[in-house]
Amino acid sequence: MPTAEFTKPTSNTPAAPFGATQVRPRRRRSDRLPDTAILVVEDDSLIADDLASQIVRDGSTVVGPATTPAGALALIESTPQIGGAILDVRLGGETAFAIAEKLRDREIPFVFFTGYDDIRWPADFRATPKISKTADWRDMKRILFGARERLKRQSRDFREDVAASLPLLREAAAAMTGSK
């Protein structure tokens, strides 16, 4: 899976919000995701329509676009096979964090799609990829499905993995220090 290439904005590129990812376009036909259902949560109809048309041109299916958290949650419940999601963080006077929790619970990869840099991120989502609204679908796709691959490699409960490793770590430490 190709990885995103991070670049500094040029003088012609609008500045991305703090913490948002800017990527340089790198397009290949093999990057296509045929028939993958992508949930789009965006309250600006022009942005939502543009993003949806890019996703469809790429061979994927659009779920939504949803313009409210309640609408997005209903789509998640009624759509069994969502392959990924793009979430505008601010939806009117609400945020997309409840949507993100539901997606995380269902192990659906998602990215935050934002034009704001003054968002107070809950601790659970500080490490979630944040993409500037200056990015296009191909940029989002590389980051979104790179996240899916990382999720597959991660255990559902990190603490259980650490606890299971402790006896081996203690044994290795004792062997290295010569103590028992």
List the main descriptive attributes of the protein structure presented here.
5 helices; single chain; five-stranded parallel beta sheet; 16% strand; 180 residues
Helix percent reads 25-40%
Largest sheet: 5 strands, parallel
Structural class: alpha/beta
Strand order across the biggest sheet?
2-1-3-6-7
Tell me, rounded to a whole number, the average pLDDT: 77
Tally of separate helices: 5
Termini separation (Å)? 45 Å
Supply Rg.
Answer: 19 Å
Order of helices and strands: EHEHEEEHEEHH
What best-fitting shape do the alpha-carbon axes yield?
Answer: elongated
Which residue ranges are poorly predicted, with pLDDT under 50 across at least 5 consecutive positions? Answer: 1-30
Q: How many strands in all?
A: 7
Strand content: 15-25%
Subunit organisation of the chains: single chain
Give me the secondary-structure topology.
Elements: E1 37-41, H1 45-57, E2 61-66, H2 69-78, E3 84-88, E4 90-91, E5 94-95, H3 97-105, E6 110-114, E7 130-132, H4 137-153, H5 158-177
Parallel strand pairs: 1-2, 1-3, 3-6, 6-7
Antiparallel strand pairs: 4-5
Helix pairs in contact: 2-3
